[in-house]
Design brief:
Structural class: alpha/beta
Number of strands: 7
Oligomer: single chain
Low-confidence stretches: none
Number of helices: 7
Order of helices and strands: HEEHHEHEHEEHEH
Radius of gyration: 18 Å
Strand content: 15-25%
Length: 197
């Protein structure tokens, strides 16, 4: 979880800094399974530095993820059309298709998924206690079983497919970035895609 949090903070700070060049207004909404903090968009270096400090110091009070709730909040809270980046690991059991479609019609939305390679594959290390991030329950998993590892890989792949389909159907660009990757490359590719619209 820490590597993901750190990379999300770095990406968010990079996006905030890049807006200084264009003299854009910048705001931020922090969310878990609820909206935790909202800093309305404003201009100026002082404001952006405040946002970056908040990004670095932010500790969510809750553990879950509810993308539907944050998108509804954003649609209602931001009156003027803006460019918005949704940063999440997208490990979310809620259906957010409708709220993402509406948010992307009103604003210009891009999605950035940050994941840990360990989210994607299960190493063979015997019996492991794992926590279900959404429910908080602990379960024991036998990672030495090829069957278990294959099922895990399949489930991850299916979830990724579903994510890209949902986001694509909403007309939103998606960048999936692993914590061991150079995120700058992925961000540049995302910006290039968006430039072609």
């Amino acid at each position: 979880g820490e590597a993901k949090k750190e990379m999300m903070a770095e990406i968010a700070a990079t996006l905030a800094f890049s807006s200084i060049q264009n003299n854009d207004k910048v705001g931020v909404i922090f969310f878990s399974d609820r909206v935790e903090k909202f800093i309305p968009p404003k201009k100026g270096k002082k404001h952006i530095l405040l946002i970056i400090r908040e990004i670095i110091e932010f500790k969510p009070e809750s553990q879950g993820t509810d993308i539907d709730c944050v998108l509804q909040f954003m649609t209602n809270a931001l009156k003027k059309r803006c460019t918005a980046f949704l940063l999440s690991d997208f490990i979310d059991s809620h259906d957010y298709f409708r709220s993402m479609s509406i948010a992307n019609r009103k604003h210009d939305l891009a999605a950035i998924q940050v994941y840990d390679r360990r989210d994607a594959t299960l190493p063979d290390v015997g019996l492991v206690r794992m926590r279900d991030m959404e429910t908080g329950a602990d379960i024991w998993v036998d990672t030495s079983s090829k069957k278990v590892r294959t099922a895990y890989d399949k489930a991850w792949y299916a979830r990724q497919q579903q994510l890209s389909q949902t986001v694509g159907r909403c007309g939103v660009d998606l960048a999936s970035i692993s914590t061991d990757e150079d995120f700058v490359k992925s961000l540049l590719a995302l910006f290039r895609n968006r430039g072609g619209r």
